[in-house]
# Entry
Amino acid sequence: MQSFRSPLICLTCAAFLAAGCTERAVTKVTKIEPGADAQKRAQTALIKAKPGEVIEFGEGKFEFTSTLSLDVNNVTIRGNGNDKTILAFNQQGQGTGGEGILVTSKEKFTIEDLAIEDAKGDSIKVNGCTGVTFRKVRVGWTGGSKETNGGYGLYPVLSKDVLIEDCIVREASDAGIYVGQSENIIVRRNLVERNVAGIEIENSVNADVYENVATDNTGGILVFSLPDLQKKIGHHCRVHNNQVIENNHENFAPKGNIVANVPAGTGVMILANRNVEIFDNEIKNNQNIGVSICSYQVTQRPFAQDPVYDPYTAAIYVHDNKITGGGDKPSGMLGKIVASLLGEKKLPAIVYDGVVDESKTKDGALPPELAIRIHNNGDADFVNFDLPNLDFSNPLAIKKGNISRDLKPYEGDMPKLAPVKIAGVK
# Structure
């Protein structure tokens, strides 16, 4: 009997086969194994990669002598586990690039399941990309806490839709996880330890930082806005359900870096940011301060007048945290001065500098939408140390000003910030 195929069936089969070919093209995998010429093979694969390709590093230790760079969109770099695939840069020479991996792709970059060790500069820098994922990446410097270590572990900057999850970062001389001048950010379930700053969200908009463990850093979690950057101001950041425990590591940042001023023993620090919500965190045994709320003026650094940059901190809501222990070893000039003014050896759990933008006040107070609100943090005590009336020019003649332990002016609720959503991320 002669077989019969309808035009519809033929068209359906053709479409199915075409879809299968497209899928195979999208999931092309180029494998790189350890060996003497791994540097050349890896960089060649990154240069020749096509959108949708996976560059997969096998098990073992790879010895690289210069930066690996990628500028192709929609490429995944992956290993076979962050305890099995190690990209080592301890032989990186002068003039061969500062980063371990430098990504300048514009769209969709993923790196997962591998380790980066001993980069001369930043371990993984992603600049100007929309759709960035770091997943199950381990980063570290094996020689201990040294100011010669690279500054940043995981470093997306000027990027959008950034997801950093289930990573481990240790021994960065600036910040383990640093997200700068970026938008739409989720940082979750990471372990950061023995860095100067564990996690830093800087001059960024719409960030969710949750379910991380920050321990044995100089400062656990920092939310900063700094002057003289392309993106001028950070706002709308939620820091919640984290464990911020015993961040008492000595500060080993190179002198001159802004984080070199972060006192050892700092749990959570908000600097010149606004619309920040800190809630449901366990903040424990940070020897200097549990939570610090400060303007940029607290740095005592000059900055150029800028019509966009705002050095003030406003619209901060700190609530429902469990803050225990700590404060028993005030550090840095400011911590020691405040403890001295209080006549105590221990700093309060929550410290506020009392600096407000007077142009925005009404009857001497900020409007409700810009207020500082501190509510339901258990037995956590508080101080407003009234920075405007402290004269640092002569430490022997510090003015006490209106330093106050009274929390009542700051009690109350604020509208909660909305969670950050990234398409395709649950």
